[in-house]
Write a structure and sequence with these properties.
Strand content: 25-35%
Largest sheet: 6 strands, mixed
Radius of gyration: 24 Å
Helix content: 25-40%
Structural class: alpha/beta
CATH superfamily of the largest domain: P-loop containing nucleotide triphosphate hydrolases
CATH architecture of the largest domain: 3-Layer(aba) Sandwich
Number of helices: 10
Distance between the termini: 37 Å
CATH class of the largest domain: Alpha Beta
CATH topology of the largest domain: Rossmann fold
Length: about 300
Amino acid sequence: MNGSTLEIDGLRKRYGDTVALDGVGFTVHPGEVFGFVGSNGAGKTTTMRITLGVLSADAGEARIDGRPIDLEVRRTVGYMPEERGLYPKMRVGNQLRYLAELHGLSRSDATAAVQRWTERLGIEGRVNDTVDSLSLGNQQRVQLAAALVHDPAVLVLDEPFSGLDPVAVDTMSDVLLEKANAGVPVLFSSHQLDLVQRLCHRVGIIGGGRMKAVGPVDELRGRDGTTLTVHAPDAPAGWADHLPGVTTVSHENGRTALALGENADDQAILAAALATGPVHEFARTLPSLTDLYREVVA
C-alpha cells in the first residue's frame, strides 16, 4: 500500500525534575490505525505535540518517510488537538477555508474541500455559524474537518472522540477507517478503550513517559493466553484440573472459566466436559483491551 510512514524515535522530555517522556518510540505504517492510550499525564499529548513541532524534544525526533518534521513536512499532517484549537468568533466555513489555504490549497480547491468535509461530517448547515455558537460535539466535528480539509498524508488526533454522541462517534470512526484504507497512517489517542479495540490495527500503551506495550491489538490481548468458558451444568469443581496446560480460573453454577497454556488441547477439554454431562457453551475469549490496560499500567 502506498502511503507515508510516521516514526516516533526515542523521544525524551523533562520539565525540571519531572520526566515527561523517557525514550518513547513507535511506528505508524501506511494504512494503519494506531491507538495511543495511557492515563492523564502519561505522556500522550506531549508526544503528539513534539511530533507536530509544537514542543521541542530534549532528545529523539519524529519523522515522516525518514524526514524530520519541519514546516514543509508539517503541512502534510492533519492534526486535531485535544483542546479547542479554533477561532471561536470566526465563521466555520471561513475558518476551514482559511486553514486549507494555509496548507497550500488554492481558493477554489479550499472551497470545494470545505463543502466536501462539512457535508461528510454533517455540519454543512453550520458553515455560517461562529464556532462558539456550536455544541461541543459540533465543535469537535469542525476540529476534525480542520484536520482533514487539506487532504493530509498523515493524521494525528488527540482524543478525537471526546464529547461525541454515538452517531458522531460512528461518523468519525468511518472517516478514520476510510483515510486508513486510502493509505494514510492514523495515530489517535483515546480513553475509550472499547473504541480503540474496535478500530485499531495496533496499539501503544504509555505509562510514566515510557512505552509499556506496543503491538497488534489481538496479539497483545492474547499474550497471556486465552480463556475458555465452558457451561457444563453437571460438571463438578476441578473437573478440568488434570488436563495439561489448563488452569481453572473460576467455577460457579456449572460455568467454568479455564486459562489455557500453550500445550492445552481444546478437544481434550471438550471431551472431559462432555464426560460430565451436557455442554451448553464452549467458547474461547480474549481479555479485553481494558483488562490488558489495567494489567500493564498496574
